[in-house]
Structure formats: structure tokens, C-alpha cells
Structure prediction request, 92 residues.
Amino acid sequence: MIVRIMGEGQWRIDDALTSDLNVIDALLDADLTVGTESTLAAHIQAIQALIKERGTPVGIEELLPSDAVVPFSGISVAELREFIGQEGLIPG
Prediction:
């Protein structure tokens, strides 16, 4: 799977990482109903860090469609509500 972090690039992730990312994705979903801006920021930072640490960066010379897009740091709860899809950020 190819995941784009807005404004930062793309990473290849494997199925094991997808499962771990979905745990944080569920927390982001909860942030839409009961979360605060600070918990949302922590969860966005956590999902970005996990992608960067365990994913493989896609070179800028490659042009690949993204299977998932993670928003920029600093996104608000209201903005995330508009951004997030039915399956959350990370499909699967």
C-alpha cells in the first residue's frame, strides 16, 4: 500500500504496518466525536511517525497513486471531519 503524508511525500507500507496504523486510525475516528484538538494532534503525529519509522519512502522520481492520505500536522477536528472517509484514513 502507498500512503501519502500531505506535504511530506509517500511511503510504502506492508500489511503488518497497516494493522498497527488502523489502531491509531480508530483513535482518530474517536477524536471526531469526543476528542480535543490536543488529542487529535497527538494521534496525527503518532500515525505520521509510525509511517516514517516503519514504512519505506517512495522516491520523488516515482509517481504513484496513493491508497491512503494522512493529513498534515495541525489539522483541526472540523477539518478532519471533512477529510476522513467511511473507512477512516487507512483502508483495511
Strands lie at 2-5, 9-12, 56-57, 68-70.
